């Protein structure tokens, strides 16, 4: 039983540490895991980091990931916020390089408008259907 | 409201559910169901290389700046690291490209000089310049999301092609063609 568990653990570890996940031996970049001294700037950076997708992870934000690249992206975000850059300008800089894929907050444009409008449309349809129901019930009484 | 149109409206939720099932079914069977295989192409293809200046990554090669990439001749920029296993796989192909007269510069990601020297000694050294990108800053500016990646840069310093992942033997003609197209 213990041997089986050990084998399963090894398999899990092996599948986790694939060749693409090889790690650099360099220490973390400045600001990768260190908060900005100004709490307001740190809060701005935090909010942006939570809405940017880690490029090499599966469905994690750069705030949540320990991958080297996510750390370097956190360093980039904090460095630029500290230099006075607007969070949305930093997001746009990344979208210009990696496409919309990099942001968890999709912009409103020709491709993404259904994402924003469809829920409203469905809610409206639902309310309209329900309203018809209520009206009919009242008439029946 | 007539009962006739009421009856039709009853089908609307089913219709919406049907659309959802079609949508997710399509994504499941025809979409990229394995996110691990997703490659993110750089939007910088067609754009001039970003402004950068990297210090030398090893003592026997000069560093790399964006000015070094606008030389009038197309060249390759190889994004690599000594800690990256696929970079070992592509080393013979880079050497072959260099032997065919292709100029290759490199950006070494998060790497130490002694590790890079060892890597070049073991797997070959096809590079002219090697810049040290210790915090992936330039890699991010290129829109590159991993190692190895190789960019074709034309004589004016405009990025013309991106190869994601290791260069396999069958990729060499593709790279040669991209270099020819960048002329």
Question: How do you describe this structure in short?
Answer:
The complex is a heterodimer of chains A (141) and B (183). With 141 residues, chain A is an all-alpha fold.
General description of the model:
The complex is a heterodimer of chains A (141) and B (183). Chain A has 141 residues and is mainly α. Chain A folds into 2 domains: 28-106, Cytochrome C biogenesis protein (Helicase, Ruva Protein, domain 3, Orthogonal Bundle), CATH 1.10.8.640; 108-141. In chain A, 58% of the residues lie in helices and 0% in strands. Chain A has helices at residues 2-16, 39-50, 68-82, 87-98, 113-140. The longest helix of chain A has 28 residues, at 113-140. The model of chain A is unreliable at 14-20 (pLDDT under 50). Chain B is an alpha/beta fold. Chain B folds into 2 domains: 3-34; 39-181, Glutaredoxin, CATH 3.40.30. In chain B, strands 5-4-3-6-7 form a 5-stranded mixed beta sheet. A two-stranded antiparallel sheet of chain B has the order 1-2. In chain B, β6 (149-153) and β7 form a beta hairpin. Chains A and B meet through α3, α4 and α5 of A and α5 of B.
Fill in the keyword field for this structure:
heterodimer; A: 141 residues; mainly alpha; Helicase, Ruva Protein, domain 3; 2 domains; 5 helices; 58% helix; B: 183 residues; alpha/beta; Glutaredoxin; five-stranded mixed β-sheet
Count of runs of 4 or more consecutive helical residues of chain B: 6
Q: Stretches of chain A where pLDDT falls below 50 for ≥5 residues?
A: 14-20
Biggest pleated-sheet summary of chain B: 5 strands, mixed
Low-confidence stretches of chain B: none
Structural class of chain A: mainly alpha
> How many DSSP E strands of chain B?
7
* Beta strand count of chain A: 0
Fold-level CATH name of the largest domain in chain A: Helicase, Ruva Protein, domain 3
CATH class of the largest domain in chain A: Mainly Alpha
CATH architecture of the largest domain in chain A: Orthogonal Bundle
Q: Which bin fits the share of residues in helices of chain B?
A: 25-40%
CATH level 1 name of the largest domain in chain B: Alpha Beta
Total individual domains of chain B: 2
């Amino acid at each position: 039983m213990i041997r089986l568990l050990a084998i399963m653990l090894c398999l899990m570890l092996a599948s986790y540490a694939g060749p693409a996940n090889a790690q650099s031996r360099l220490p973390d970049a400045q600001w990768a895991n260190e908060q900005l001294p100004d709490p307001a700037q740190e809060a701005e950076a935090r909010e942006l980091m939570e809405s940017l997708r880690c490029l090499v992870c599966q469905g994690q934000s750069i705030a949540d990931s320990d991958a080297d690249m996510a750390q370097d992206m956190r360093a980039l975000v904090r460095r630029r916020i500290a230099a006075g850059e607007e969070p949305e300008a930093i997001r746009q800089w990344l979208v210009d390089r990696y496409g919309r894929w990099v942001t968890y907050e999709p912009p409103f444009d020709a491709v993404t408008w259904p994402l924003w409008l469809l829920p409203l449309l469905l809610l409206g349809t639902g309310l309209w259907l329900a309203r018809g129901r209520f009206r009919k019930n009242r008439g029946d009484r | 409201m007539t009962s006739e149109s009421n009856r039709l409206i009853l089908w609307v939720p089913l219709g919406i559910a049907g659309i959802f099932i079609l949508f997710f079914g399509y994504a499941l069977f025809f979409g990229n169901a394995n996110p691990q295989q997703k490659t993110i192409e750089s939007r910088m293809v067609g754009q001039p290389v970003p402004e950068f200046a990297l210090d030398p990554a090893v003592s026997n090669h000069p560093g790399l700046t964006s000015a070094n990439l606008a030389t009038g001749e197309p060249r390759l920029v190889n994004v690599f690291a000594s800690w990256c296993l696929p970079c070992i796989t592509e080393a013979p192909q880079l050497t072959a490209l260099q032997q065919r007269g292709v100029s290759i510069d490199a950006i070494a990601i998060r790497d130490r000089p002694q590790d890079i020297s060892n890597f070049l000694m073991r797997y070959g050294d096809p590079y002219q310049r090697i810049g040290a990108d210790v915090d992936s800053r330039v890699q991010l500016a290129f829109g590159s999301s991993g190692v190895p990646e190789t960019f074709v840069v034309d004589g004016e310093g405009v990025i013309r092609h991106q190869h994601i992942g290791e260069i396999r033997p069958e990729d060499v003609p593709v790279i040669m063609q991209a270099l020819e197209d960048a002329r």
